[in-house]
């Protein structure tokens, strides 16, 4: 998207004043310093939280019982206090809320390791997902909802015994399709933005592709054939949907996924000999060129 395109759409009255200003601000933020500051804040919070978790994990053996329990609790209290004083309608307040969400999980992990409360991974993620629900209601942040969805998905995968199980396959498809449909069609979610949808459909597409890849060796044997064929159908469905929506990112990703699944099937005969490598390279090059042509044609249609 370019400013010239927006100006033309506005001139032809395809956009009203409010829509034009909103899109223009996304394209060229009025306050670039604030725009950059917000994104650096998000990146900084993510690095700090990742550093905290890695610090506890790396120094676990040297830390005493009191220190193990107190560190995540202190972090939780500080993040809660920061969210309260900075208010949840500010970027900083929301960042503190995300810190509290991670500290909850860190404390549950530490508590479970010390007292061996069953020591099942799904118990940790199940309780964590439940404790995140009040935070979702308080923050009303789309990324907090998504984070909770991811945690709940890991819970279900662990409860089923892993991601490569029949139960998790159908649950994952159901959960992510439902989440995608809500964001796509629910009026209240329309302002969440096109970019947000990527974080819903991409895990679904990745999971379907990986499952299909693992099933490809026995693709002719039931029930493995079902998973592989389902992966092909899903990739093809999203490819067609992306073509309809003129979504170049969604199109390119699923073109890549479809090519990977086809190559995984061809490995049975071509293996990794020179001929096979040449065929795989040509298929991926064709996939990339097709995605580029789609992106270019979509831009021309918008103009």
Detailed description of the structure:
The protein has helices at 3-11, 17-27, 32-58, 65-86, 91-115, 121-139, 142-160, 166-185, 194-215, 224-245, 248-270, 274-302. The protein has 303 residues and is mainly α. α7 runs antiparallel to α8.
Features:
303 residues; mainly alpha; 12 helices
How many beta strands in the DSSP annotation?
0
The oligomeric state of the chains shown is single chain
Percent strand equals under 5%
Low-confidence stretches: none
Can you describe this structure in just a few lines?
The chain contains twelve helices and no strands. By secondary structure, the chain is mainly alpha-helical.
Outline the secondary-structure elements.
Layout: H1 3-11, H2 17-27, H3 32-58, H4 65-86, H5 91-115, H6 121-139, H7 142-160, H8 166-185, H9 194-215, H10 224-245, H11 248-270, H12 274-302
Helix pairs in contact: 1-2, 3-5, 4-5, 5-6, 6-7, 7-8, 8-9, 9-10, 9-11, 10-11, 11-12
